Amino acid sequence: MIKIGITCYPTIGGSGIIATELGKMLAETKDYEVHFITSSLPFRLDCVNPGIYFHEVETVHYPVFRYPPYDLALAAKMAEVIDREQLDILHVHYAMPHAISAILARDIAKRDVKIVTTLHGTDITVLGFDQTFKKMIAYGIEQSDAVTAVSKDLVERTKKYLNVNKAIEVIYNFVNEQVYHKKDRDYLKCDYRIASDDKVIIHISNFRKVKRIPDIIYTFHEIRKQIKAKLLLVGDGPESPAAFELVNELGLKDDVRFLGKQKNISDLLSISDLMLLLSEQESFGLVLLEAMACEVPSIGTNIGGIPEVIVHGETGYLVELGDVKRAAEYAVQLLTDEEKLASFRKAAYERAANVFHSRYIVKQYTDLYQRLLSENQGEKNGENRQSGF
Fold first, then answer.
1. Where are the domains of the chain?
2. Fewest C-beta in 10 Å: which of 91, 191, 211, 357?
3. What is the spatial distance between Cα 58 and Cα 359, in angstroms, rounded to a whole number?
4. Are 12 and 99 in contact (CB under 8 A)?
5. CATH node for 2-174+357-386
6. Contact, 8 vs 20, CB < 8 A?
7. DSSP three-state, residue 85
8. Is 276 within 8 Å of 219 (Cβ atoms)?
9. What is the rounded CA–CA span in Å between residue 182 and residue 273?
10. Is 342 exposed, middle or buried (0-12, 13-18, 19+ CB in 10 A)?
11. pLDDT beyond 60 at 378
């Protein structure tokens, strides 16, 4: 039995979803005992499994601290769990602060533990440009026993921005196929006031500037001039108020549904015909894979890891950043040709099932764990031989 600790951001977000689903699938194999070490119960940790444990990180409030030192509290909890539960591996998602805390925990703990760091993007594309954190993030990567990234593009940017020499293995994101598959949810169209002959376009994000919500709305505005359609905007964030205003200005109020944060994403994808993701930065684009698994093609920007997910002209289309006219043209071409749409739906599903299937991706992680532990055992055997044992 291999004991693994997993640390991630527990709130809604791609990295937390991947980390939690990975932990759940590892526990289901019966070969792994999984310990989540986070500030609160992960959003997707909604199952009961005797092989899964949760350890809450609590910050201590002292008058001397202006802000509670979460990274130090996390390191202390990691060290505690390493020793008490006899962990073999700490798998942390995001270099900053999780890898830094893990390295400190490894130094504190009495038991040797291997650290695997998975890079998801923001720790490199945002914090990696901040001179305050640049060296610290690079240190976290270099001092990890193994590092993975969710796309080839992210590997290249990490090496370019941080000038690290560490080997970084690409392990793509995945979805839980038991959750993400096309379902019979046509009744939802009535609930959301969508006519049977309306095409349904969906966008899912945290509504930050990087997601370029105005581009989504302008693209839909162009589409709506030519075909009957509804736009589902799923999620919430700082750009939501501006999105409301733009929708009203363009006279789209009756055709746009602001749904806020939702848990039933696969249900909403099951009534959708097309996904739009027109971000200016995206290390992978997990929502694209979620859409593909539900047989929904996508239009995305030709940036970051998106071209590694969408096959242009087969599972969707790629456009240059800000080219809403071209995005709308592709959308109308696809949505007005039922034979082409059916072909794209099939190709999207098959790519999700064949390239990004959870069994394949999880095995890449378990192979990495086994390799690290084998190397560790080899090092110990070498030390024993040198010392005469």
1. 2-174+357-386, 187-355
2. 191
3. 34
4. no
5. 3.40.50.2000
6. yes
7. helix
8. yes
9. 11
10. exposed
11. no
